[in-house]
Amino acid sequence: MLVFDCSDEGQRAAGLDAAADAVRRGRLVVLPTDTLYGLGADAFDRDAVAGLLAAKGRGRDMPVPVLVGSWRTLDGLAEQVTGQIRDLMRAFWPGGLTLVINHAPSLRWDLGDARGTVAVRMPLHPVALELLARTGPMAVSSANISGRPAATDAQDAMMQLGGAAEVYLDGGPTPVGTASTILDCTGPVPVVVREGAVGLAALRSVLPLVQEPARR
């Protein structure tokens, strides 16, 4: 297990090299994002994604989201990038909004029982974006054991995950500390799946017809 303090320029550079190499070899890494710390793997490596789910104690019924490093990346992942999706990207990416979209049928990945969809976000964190620029899309879930509080700093992630991750990039406490908002954009009217870092009022300022999550 390698830990790098990303507040130090030399360690940050070495940590990004080590993390990118680990991802290429199918290993897991922990990285900071603007919302929470994430446990990440190559999105197109089925074994690595399965290892991520196992490390968290999480089932395939909860598919792993994907982080991207640029808007352009979504064009290669989505079946269709609608005008609504582009409006949301312009308003909230990079940032705390995860978009659930229908992924391109040609993609041969296995993120869990996603039924042809994928949850995608572009994070607002320089370390995460630098890593994604090197690796391409990463499958990233919150860096915690399923059912336990999500990690907002590297130390908490290490306490929960230990040697399950080969590399830890310590970017200090996360600036938001709240999970992203998840918005289902697979239908004609976007629906909030999980309320989080981006509020309903902000979403409706861009798309007035956004629906609230169903109350149980």
UniProtKB/TrEMBL annotation:
<protein>
    <recommendedName>
        <fullName>L-threonylcarbamoyladenylate synthase</fullName>
        <ecNumber>2.7.7.87</ecNumber>
    </recommendedName>
</protein>
<keyword id="KW-0548">Nucleotidyltransferase</keyword>
<keyword id="KW-0963">Cytoplasm</keyword>
<comment type="similarity">
    <text>Belongs to the SUA5 family.</text>
</comment>
<dbReference type="GO" id="GO:0005524">
    <property type="term" value="F:ATP binding"/>
</dbReference>
<dbReference type="Pfam" id="PF01300">
    <property type="entry name" value="Sua5_yciO_yrdC"/>
</dbReference>
<dbReference type="InterPro" id="IPR017945">
    <property type="entry name" value="DHBP_synth_RibB-like_a/b_dom"/>
</dbReference>
<dbReference type="InterPro" id="IPR050156">
    <property type="entry name" value="TC-AMP_synthase_SUA5"/>
</dbReference>
<dbReference type="GO" id="GO:0006450">
    <property type="term" value="P:regulation of translational fidelity"/>
</dbReference>
<keyword id="KW-0808">Transferase</keyword>
<dbReference type="GO" id="GO:0003725">
    <property type="term" value="F:double-stranded RNA binding"/>
</dbReference>
<dbReference type="GO" id="GO:0061710">
    <property type="term" value="F:L-threonylcarbamoyladenylate synthase"/>
</dbReference>
<dbReference type="GO" id="GO:0005737">
    <property type="term" value="C:cytoplasm"/>
</dbReference>
<dbReference type="GO" id="GO:0000049">
    <property type="term" value="F:tRNA binding"/>
</dbReference>
<dbReference type="InterPro" id="IPR006070">
    <property type="entry name" value="Sua5-like_dom"/>
</dbReference>
<keyword id="KW-0819">tRNA processing</keyword>
<dbReference type="GO" id="GO:0008033">
    <property type="term" value="P:tRNA processing"/>
</dbReference>
<feature type="domain" description="YrdC-like">
    <location>
        <begin position="13"/>
        <end position="198"/>
    </location>
</feature>
<keyword id="KW-0067">ATP-binding</keyword>
<keyword id="KW-0547">Nucleotide-binding</keyword>
